[in-house]
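Example 9 (inverse folding). The structure is encoded as follows.
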């Protein structure tokens, strides 16, 4: 599965394949003098190529940044090994006056993990 994902992410084969398809369309359409259809195919293929090239990298980076800047809540004055995304999800048996807020990347760097019950 990992190799398949790498092929799609890197898309090394996608541009050469698109060029071959363009050439075949040009040869086919010039024989029948259908220039308008060719222009339409060209625009659609260009749009698809630009979408495929931009989606994986942009999506993964923005999701990583959102997750790492998320505010989390840590009990026991920040010494607990567990953090929560929602302070209302913390069990009432914990002392709610000793909750510390921090970003998720700071919590992870301190060896904390997300609560299993949230």
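The amino acid assigned to each position is listed next.
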């Amino acid at each position: 599965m990992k190799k398949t994902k790498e092929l799609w992410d890197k898309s090394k084969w996608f541009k050469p394949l698109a060029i071959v398809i363009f050439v075949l369309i040009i040869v086919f359409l010039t024989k029948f003098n259908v220039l308008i259809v060719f222009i339409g195919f060209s625009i659609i293929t260009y749009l698809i190529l630009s979408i495929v090239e931009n989606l994986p990298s942009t999506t993964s980076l923005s999701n990583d940044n959102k997750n790492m800047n998320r505010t989390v809540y840590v009990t026991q004055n920040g010494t607990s090994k567990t953090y929560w995304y929602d302070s209302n999800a913390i069990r009432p048996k914990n002392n709610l006056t000793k909750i510390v807020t921090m970003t998720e990347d700071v919590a992870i760097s301190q060896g904390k993990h997300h609560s299993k019950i949230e």
